[in-house]
């Protein structure tokens, strides 16, 4: 999306209720606790998920910030069993190469505690697959191209919004990044301007779903946060 006028036009910030400090902390804690229950699962139920839920979550993803507000993303939501079967077959072909010697030993060792392998049944069992594409350039009405900026960063932000929205809707999500992914461009019939980034398998977890114990180990706050404030002593 692009404002063809090229003119900066300010508009009022949409209003929302103001929170005091205590309410802000309570809201931050509530969101933290909700997201702390998020885990990637590989065992899905075939329980249907309404299309409206998927559409609303993707609409939320579309609210993410992006470089120059160019919104360089596109999402293909797939529930058709035949299409899911094609994606699984193509993905597993790539995965067999990956696990059969195509990936460095160090990478395979890093994946070992997660328990992944070449078999990807979730790509058929999960009621929805969402294929995320990054748009490398846009097209004007006259057919000419214009460059998109910060595409990986923008698409990453949008995908994070999407995963959060799906989780808060009661669904589980598994990210999958087969390599190479060009088969997704072909199967989803997307233009050459778009590059596939990942597949999200989306649905309810199976009743006996498990998660790798290693995946529940998260870095503590002190390892992921540095605070620089005006009251800090400096040396």
TrEMBL record:
It holds the Pfam family Nitroreductase. It comes from the Bacteria. Gene3D superfamilies: NADH Oxidase. This is Nitroreductase family protein. Residues 1-43 are annotated as: Disordered. Residues 30-43 have a biased composition (Basic and acidic residues). Residues 36-204 form the Nitroreductase domain. The keyword Flavoprotein applies. InterPro entries: Nitroreductase (IPR029479), Nitroreductase-like (IPR000415), Nitroreductase/BluB (IPR050627). Keywords: Flavoprotein, FMN, Oxidoreductase. Transmembrane segments: none annotated. The keyword Transmembrane does not apply. GO terms for molecular function: oxidoreductase activity.
């Amino acid at each position: 999306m692009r404002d063809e006028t090229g003119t900066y036009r300010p508009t009022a910030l949409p209003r929302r209720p103001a929170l005091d400090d205590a309410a802000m902390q309570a809201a931050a804690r509530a969101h933290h606790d909700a997201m702390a229950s998020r885990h990637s699962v590989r065992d899905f139920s075939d329980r249907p998920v309404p299309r409206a839920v998927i559409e609303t979550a993707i609409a939320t993803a579309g609210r993410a910030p992006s470089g120059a507000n160019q919104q360089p993303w596109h999402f293909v939501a797939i529930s058709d069993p035949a299409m899911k079967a094609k994606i699984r077959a193509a993905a597993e072909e790539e995965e067999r190469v990956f696990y059969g010697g195509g990936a460095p030993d160090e990478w395979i060792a890093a994946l070992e505690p997660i328990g992944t392998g070449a078999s990807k049944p979730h790509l058929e069992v999960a009621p929805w697959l969402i294929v995320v594409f990054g748009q490398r350039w846009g097209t004007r009405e006259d057919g000419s191209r214009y460059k998109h900026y910060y595409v990986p960063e923008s698409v990453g932000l949008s995908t994070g919004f999407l995963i959060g929205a799906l989780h808060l809707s009661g669904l589980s999500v598994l990210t999958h990044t087969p390599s190479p992914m060009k088969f997704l461009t072909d199967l989803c019939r997307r233009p050459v301007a778009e590059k596939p980034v990942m597949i999200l398998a989306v649905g309810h977890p199976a009743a006996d779903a498990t998660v790798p114990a290693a995946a529940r180990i998260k870095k503590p706050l002190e390892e992921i946060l540095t605070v620089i404030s005006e009251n800090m002593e400096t040396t």
